[in-house]
Amino acid sequence: MRIIRLFVVGLVLVAVSCGGGDSVDVNGGDLDNGGGEGGGVLSTDFSVSDLPADFPDDLVVPDIIGGERVEIGGLESVTFETSMSYEDAVAFYTDALGDPTFVGGDADSRLGSWTNHGDWAVQVLGTNPVAVGVVRVPAEE
Q: What HEC string does 22-78 produce?
């Protein structure tokens, strides 16, 4: 199950890092996330009110500048972009979830993963801006 969670979150994060860009109005601010190299690609109208009602509060990263919620084939994922640094985002989730399942990569492809939060898994990708993928994997029957 952990491998499935990591794979799904990884796919979401890869999609996030592929380009795009718009004017973003999130958390009361109007930001130009530019797209392309170092720019954001997520929904310009995202708000934490778009999250599922049962989304764990401790998984909402601070300083959100974009986001997206996707449901595909019984899997639900939320991806955030944050103005936090990669190190600060990893520290945030370490405080909330404990030690990561995995932390690694080089300066251009850093990744932190947690698979120990019930049905939710989290990955932090060291892109610019930092991307955070949170996925709910349905319980096995």
A: CEEEECCEEEECCCCCCCCCCECCCCHHHCCCCCCHHHCCCCEEEEEEEEECCEEEE
DSSP summary character for residue 117:
E
- Tabulate helix, strand, coil % of the chain (nearest 5): 25, 35, 40
Please give the single-letter amino acid code of residue 9: V
pLDDT tens-digit profile of 43-94?
557 888 888 888 999 999 999 998 888 888 778 899 999 999 999 999 999 9
Which residues does residue 23 pair with via DSSP β-bridges, in sequence order? Answer: 32
- d(Cα 138, Cα 130) in Å, to the nearest integer? 26
Q: Which of 107, 135, 140, 124 is nearest to 7 (CA)?
A: 135
Q: 28 falls in which pLDDT band (50, 70, 90)?
A: very low
